[in-house]
Amino acid sequence: MLINKVFAINFRNHIERIFFIPLLFCLLMANPAAAEMIAATDEELASITAGGFSSFTINGNTTLAEFDISTWTYTEIDSFKLGCYDDGLGGPSGWDNDWTNVDFGSPNEDLVTNGVFFETEFENLHTPATRTLKSVKFGVHEMTGTIMADFNSFSGNVGAGPVHRALNPFSEIVLDHTRFWISITLDGPEKGIQVHFDNAVIN
Fold first, then answer.
1. For residues 59 and 176, is the Cβ–Cβ distance under 8 A?
2. Contact assessment for residue 140 and residue 180, using Cβ atoms and an 8 Å cutoff
3. How far apart are CA 11 and CA 76, in angstroms?
4. 29: which of 16, 71, 101, 140 fits an S-S bond (Cβ 3.0–4.6 Å)?
């Protein structure tokens, strides 16, 4: 699959914009398909069973939704940008992540993912009057393949500690069953939109 598109998400501390990120993830990971509505007979409906596709848990102030979904893709993107705002560090507004000439996968090897998850962290989750959303994470439990790009700005970590708006730290990320997620955090040391890889080889 070959796609040339420009994606830019302008995050300015408005938590309602978190819903753009899962949509972007679905656009990147999904292959095009055709579908149509058809009527199912009573016998067909009676024979349908399902189990184990998803789970939802609450642990303290954290909620976690997990889905048994696998994807594979080779996607080219001209520009991939996340999180443009004033980070309060005295410099001009800029992008947390500004990647150009991006390849997710390669012509010879798809980027493969397995196990989608969506996690939210609250303050006072069980008290509606004071409940506050603090952060959102979404990603996959396993990602294998390569990501190549001009990383004009990179925020997050690749298994070696977090960085904030690092300039051209590498040009390739090689993944082998690596846990991956994008986090959106309103405050603290990981404020903004960051990209995380549990372990990876960078070049």
1. no
2. yes
3. 23
4. 71
Q: What is the pTM of this model?
A: 0.74
What token pair was written down for 23? Answer: 């949509």
DSSP-based helix, strand, coil % in the chain, nearest 5: 10, 55, 35
Alpha-carbon gap, residue 134 to 26, rounded angstroms: 23
Most distant CA pair in the chain, distance: 66
Structure tokens at 96: 């947390």
DSSP state of 26: H
Token look-up 């390849």 returns: 103
What lies within 8 Å, CB to CB, of 126 at 6+ separation is none
Residues 68-114: tens digit of each pLDDT: 999 999 999 999 999 999 888 776 689 999 999 999 999 999 999 99
